[in-house]
Specification:
The protein has three helices and six strands, in the order ββααββαββ. It is α+β, with helices and mostly antiparallel strands.
Length: about 160
């Protein structure tokens, strides 16, 4: 089961849908659809004014990032964390694990059936006019995040 916690936000009066929510899940295959559903339900419950194509992109990003954590980090990180941060004009999803390996986007190899998840995340993010990054955490693990504008800004 996924438990979502909301973190406080300082500053001016936030919009009703602004905030940061974080949940943890075991690094197992069943966590992939659970994380996707939790993010979708959170966006709906908070009334985030996000375009349908942005939601679909975010859900695909969550699926890819959680799948990568399950496949590649579970041995050293049996628990992963998913965070959703919503601002006035953007939404950011991130997946954190305790594995020290920092992945890079692999070149597309049409002979391989896998290994393109981070490439897909970067492409979805770029097309939406957002940003994504892989960062080390203070505990020696990593967090991979993608931030998309609430309203799509497709690149030509």
């Amino acid at each position: 089961m996924v438990t979502i916690e909301r973190e406080g936000r300082e500053g001016d009066d936030p919009l009703p849908y602004e905030g940061v929510w974080r949940f943890t899940a075991p690094a197992v295959d069943a966590s992939v659809p659970q994380a996707r559903h939790a993010v979708r339900d959170l966006l709906v419950r908070q009334g985030v004014p996000v375009a349908d194509d942005v939601v679909q992109g975010l859900l695909l990003i969550v699926s890819e990032l959680v799948t990568n954590a399950v496949r590649h980090a579970a041995l050293l990180s049996p628990v992963l964390a998913v965070e959703v941060a919503v601002g006035a004009e953007w939404v950011r999803v991130s997946v954190e694990d305790n594995h020290p390996y920092r992945p890079t986007a692999l070149e597309t190899d049409h002979g391989r059936t896998g290994g393109r998840g981070l490439l897909l995340v970067r492409e979805i993010t770029r097309e939406a006019g957002g940003a994504c990054e892989v960062e080390h955490t203070a505990s020696g693990g990593k967090v991979i995040w993608a931030a998309l504008p609430l309203k799509p800004t497709r690149l030509p």
